[in-house]
Design a protein that fits this description.
This protein has 122 residues and is of the alpha+beta class. A five-stranded mixed β-barrel has the order 1-2-3-5-4. The chain is built from three helices and six strands. The protein has a single domain, classed as Nucleic acid-binding proteins (OB fold (Dihydrolipoamide Acetyltransferase, E2P), Beta Barrel). The radius of gyration is 19 Å and the shape is globular. A hairpin with a 2-residue loop joins strand 2 and strand 3.
Length: 122
């Protein structure tokens, strides 16, 4: 069976699209880090990004924040496990906040309930 060179070229050109599809981090202020005293609401260990939903206390008021993390594979290399966080855990979370001012950010580091740390803390 002979494959048309044009068909082969089209197939090769289609490969990078899905592999390069990823959002930018421009929505996060990577120059700023915010420390949040928080209670874990939900920890999702999933690809392409793990995710933490927290209730943080700011000025005496509880606020729900959504924090995007890197992939589970990268987190494992940092010392994370699927069981590192559970609902109800009291943590100190360090995040790069959303530029929009919405309650969300990109994970930088965490102080776990036992006092141990992962990522960039302080």
């Amino acid at each position: 069976m002979k494959i048309s060179p044009w068909l082969a070229l089209a197939g090769l050109l289609a490969i990078p699209g899905p592999t390069l599809a990823h959002h930018s981090y421009a929505m996060f202020d990577m120059q700023k880090t915010v420390a949040l005293d928080a209670t874990v609401v939900r920890f999702k260990w999933q690809n392409p990004h793990a995710f933490i939903e927290i209730d943080a206390t700011a000025g005496g008021k509880k606020e729900r924040w959504s924090i995007e993390m890197t992939s589970p594979n990268n987190l494992v290399q940092e010392g994370w496990k699927r069981t590192s966080l559970k609902s109800g855990d009291k943590i100190k979370l360090y995040v790069h906040p959303l530029r929009s001012g919405a309650r969300g950010g990109s994970y930088a580091g965490v102080r776990l309930p036992d006092g141990s740390t992962l990522g960039q803390v302080g």
